[in-house]
Write a structure and sequence with these properties.
The chain is an alpha/beta fold. It has two domains: 117 residues, Response regulator (Rossmann fold), CATH 3.40.50.2300; 95 residues, Orthogonal Bundle (Arc Repressor Mutant, subunit A), CATH 1.10.10.10. Helices cover 41% and strands 22% of the residues. A five-stranded parallel beta sheet has the order 2-1-3-4-5, with helices on both faces. Strands 6-7-8-9 form a four-stranded antiparallel beta sheet, with helices on one face. It is globular, with a radius of gyration of 18 Å. 32% of the residues are buried.
């Protein structure tokens, strides 16, 4: 089945270039020039992934990403300008899966889209991982805490599954980028943002984490619950 990509950008030239590269890579592409149109297209036919510019007229990209996350776990790759670090971090905090900085190489964007889709559809061996009241069904790609569903993005799920599978070991941010998401380069603040988001979802007191600890001078370590 051909995977569908929704490209949301108010720049006609950017939309056209991205469309041509993605179609050449074998994807079916839909285009939207503003946030409202993007949300209407998503409601009519859910895409497999969204390429989303943050700077949009009307409903901006941050709000579009927030509404996408309220709907489900459709992967989102953000397009951000070079100086929009705060917006980029805000996008990651509300659940974007990746980002590409403008000006960008359309070929790189196509590779990022492929990488995010591959992570989202990765075939896992059927198994359930438990840590006290926290349970991950790795095959179904679902998680629960105290019996209640956890809304995790693909990237958050992969990071949490890696931590639980390597409990008691400390990992640096660069190592996590490579071992969890296959990046040999990238913004290490991405790891920091996703660790913070995981703490907000799995810790009773995110300010005093008991599962996902900071190891000063190294990175992070997952400690199994005493429950």
């Amino acid at each position: 089945m051909v995977e569908r990509v929704l490209v949301v950008d108010d720049d006609t030239t950017v939309r056209d270039v991205v469309r041509r590269y993605l179609e050449h890579a074998g994807y079916e592409v839909e285009l939207a020039g503003d946030g409202e149109t993007a949300l209407q297209l998503m409601a009519a036919h859910e895409p497999d992934i969204v390429v989303l510019d943050l700077m949009l007229p009307g409903i901006d990209g941050i709000e579009v990403c927030r509404r996408i996350r309220q709907r489900g776990s459709t992967p989102v790759v953000m397009l951000t300008a070079l100086g929009e670090e705060e917006d980029r971090i805000a996008g990651l905090q509300i659940g974007a899966d990746d980002y590409v900085t403008k000006p960008f190489s359309p070929r790189e964007l196509a590779l990022r889209v492929s990488s995010v889709l591959r992570r989202a559809s990765r075939a896992y061996e059927p198994r359930v991982v438990r840590d006290g009241d926290l349970e991950l069904d790795v095959a179904a790609h679902t998680a629960t805490l105290d019996g209640m569903p956890l809304q995790l993005t693909t990237r958050e799920f992969d990071l949490l599954a890696f931590f639980i599978g390597n409990a008691g070991k400390a990992f640096g941010r660069a190592e996590l980028l490579e071992r969890v998401w296959g990046w040999q380069f990238g913004d290490q603040s991405t790891v920091t943002v996703h660790v913070r988001r995981l703490r907000e979802k799995i810790e009773k007191d995110p300010a005093k984490p008991r599962r996902l600890s900071t190891v000063w001078g190294v990175g992070y370590r997952y400690d199994r619950s005493s429950l």
